[in-house]
Amino acid sequence: MKRRKLAESEVAEMPIQRSSVYQEFLAEREEILRHKWLESEKAGHDIGYERALLDWIMKHRDKWRASRKKIRRA
């Protein structure tokens, strides 16, 4: 059985879009992409998503998550 790719409008209507876990995933992904851009600018070339992801996890993830927790509690 061949699976079809969901249209963007179909994905937007899925309950997962409203879940807090998914929203946190999107926020974290945005931070990783921002880190990728900054580090690529410093390096003078695109460092790639995987390198940016690993670098961000090692250097920034714990602090970022702690700050997100504080914001959610407030």
SSE map:
Blueprint: H1 8-12, H2 20-43, H3 49-59, H4 61-73
Helix pairs in contact: 2-3
Give a summary of the structure in a few sentences:
This protein is mainly α. It is built from four helices and no strands.
Name the poorly predicted regions: none
Class of secondary structure makeup: mainly alpha
- Give the integer mean of the pLDDT values: 87
Radius of gyration: 16 Å
Reported for the largest beta sheet, the result is: none
- Considering DSSP H and I runs of 4 or more, what fraction of the residues is helical? over 70%
Secondary-structure element series: HHHH
Tally of DSSP helical segments: 4
What features would you describe in this structure?
Helices cover 72% and strands 0% of the residues. The chain is mainly α and 74 residues long. α2 (20-43) crosses α3 (49-59). The longest helix is centred in the middle third of the chain and has 24 residues, at 20-43. The protein starts with 7 loop residues before the first helix and ends with a helix.
